[in-house]
Amino acid sequence: METDKETEPKKGLFSGIFSRAAGKETGRRDFLKLVSVLAGTLFTSSYLKFSGSKGMRFLRPPGALANSEFLRKCMRCGICGQVCPNQCIQFFSMGSGENSETPFILPRLQGCMLCMKCNNSCPSGALQPLKDDMASIIGGVKMGKAVVDRNICYSYNNRSCGICYRACPLQDEAIKVSIWERPEINKEKCVGCGLCERVCIHYPQAIKVIPS
Amino acid sequence: MINTIRRSIQVSVWLFILLVPAVNYYGIMLEQKNRISMDESPLLSLIHRSFKGMDREKVIDLTHRVKGSVWSAEIYGFKISDPLAAFESTVVPVYFYLPLLLSALVPVFFTLVFGRVFCGWICPAGLLMDLNDRLRKLLLKIKYNSRDILFKRKTKYLVLILGILTAFFMGMPLLSLIYPPAIISREIFYKTYYGIWSTSFYFLAFILFFELILSRRWWCRYICPGGAIYIALSKFRRLDIKRDDALCTKCGECDPVCPYDLKPMSVQPGMECDQCSECMRTCKPGALKYIFNLPGIPVARKNKPLDNGEEGKAT
């Protein structure tokens, strides 16, 4: 295409790979350069692991696919954060490696209140749409599972508290209380919204959501 | 006239990107009954005053009708996505999600009929780059001669294919991190909601600065992967800019104006043309015109060669 004399590029920056040097034709050397660039990029990229968000415990918004699938499918548009009425969805910055610009929830800062707005407005299907009723929330939302640390929980240490039980949106299904309001988590029903971790009055929190 | 319409569309797209997150944020604040941050921010209190007298529930519902940005938007339940987003989010996970593919149909249809109109008429980065062209002229006035490094035009296809392959092997979409419209929409959303710029802001600044000093329109001409998709789609376009040989005085004023360096006087603009109509505005005799080729009629795209031996080119 670029055969006009006016468009002929100057020698210099990137002249080997990206622009044709003056007087030369595209030949075997250019092709080999292209192939080597291609192979190098693919080789590096497949072994590249970033460390931006390593060791961080975070949840994905409700309805998210499994993490590797989610990272592939999410198109980084930010609509889930735009519609969240609880402002619990935050975003990783550009330098966070494969997690760059993806949504996450820190349950100690703000839990998800299961309004099902983010996944129903997700354009790419990384957050699968779910109906806003109890059965489909219990069946479809798999953000994580809550775990109680019985060594520090007030209710297990002779002081009645029960605040996590009161905060849970799936009361008596995901979380049950026994004597002195000791929380017991039903692993099958817990969706991992993080509201219990948000309200826990012990510091550090005695109930934690472990992401699945 | 056409240029005024184009500029007003570009400005209204910018207003859309700026206002939609603000209105959505206002709706969230209203839902939370968060009066403090509403009174603190001048923009939110302005929106609050403009919605005055309306029912609260109705306002919350209204603010959620329109959401998103140019990368992906939802307007009254109707979803529109960038073709690059749809392409990448389908190819990288190898997962066909029908609503996503359907949402890319409108821009694809417009590109098939009118050519690469997104770049010249809608793209928010396009307006910034037009401003950069003005800045280059200003720099010329103070005797600063910006350089103009040329790359190969086909580099953008390399970026597109290499980007998709790299994304596939890395397991994350990379092109959405470097595509300027996506960066701009995300940055404005982050600024409105969290009060900070993300790191990709610096990448956008780098693109603009490189363009200002070293290479005119380098991103749009040589690199942009979204532009590559639009150009590939505009092969079948019906709208063209055509030169009337009888009127043309061969003054050559339209050639340096073209942001894509397509030389509308000596050769036919071709697939890369984004219908920005800058050349038509410059042409004093009015020799350059839009031609809409209806389907069924053979497309007369090729220009006649000029007298001075330069050959006409069609793509």
Describe this structure in words.
The complex is a heterodimer of chains A (212) and B (315). Chain A is α+β, with helices and mostly antiparallel strands and 212 residues long. Helices cover 25% and strands 10% of the residues of chain A. Chain A is built from 7 helices and 6 strands. In chain A, the strands form 3 sheets. Chain A has a two-stranded antiparallel ribbon with strand order 1-2. Chain A has a two-stranded antiparallel ribbon with strand order 3-6. Mean pLDDT of chain A is 82; it is low at 1-6 and 11-23. By secondary structure, chain B is mainly alpha-helical. Chain B contains 17 helices and 5 strands. Chains A and B meet through helix 1, helix 2 and helix 3 of A and helix 1, helix 5, helix 6, helix 10 and helix 12 of B.
What attributes characterize this protein structure?
heterodimer, A: alpha+beta, two-stranded antiparallel ribbon, 7 helices, 6 strands, B: 315 residues, mainly alpha, 5 strands, 7% strand
Bulk shape of chain A: elongated
Low-confidence stretches of chain A: 1-6, 11-23
Helix content estimate of chain A: 25-40%
Number of strands of chain A: 6
The secondary-structure element order of chain B is: HHHHEEEHHHHHHHHHHHEHHE
Output the helix-strand order of chain A.
HHHEEHHEHEEHE
Termini of chain A, distance in Å? 53 Å
What is the number of helical segments of chain A per DSSP (H or I, 4+ residues)? 7
N-to-C CA distance of chain B: 28 Å
What is the CA-atom radius of gyration of chain B, in angstroms?
Answer: 22 Å
Number of helices of chain B: 17
Strand content of chain B is 5-15%
Give the helix level of chain B as a range of percent.
55-70%
The number of E-state strands of chain B comes to: 5
Describe the structure concisely:
The complex is a heterodimer of chains A (212) and B (315). By secondary structure, chain A is α+β, with helices and mostly antiparallel strands. Chain A is built from 7 helices and 6 strands.
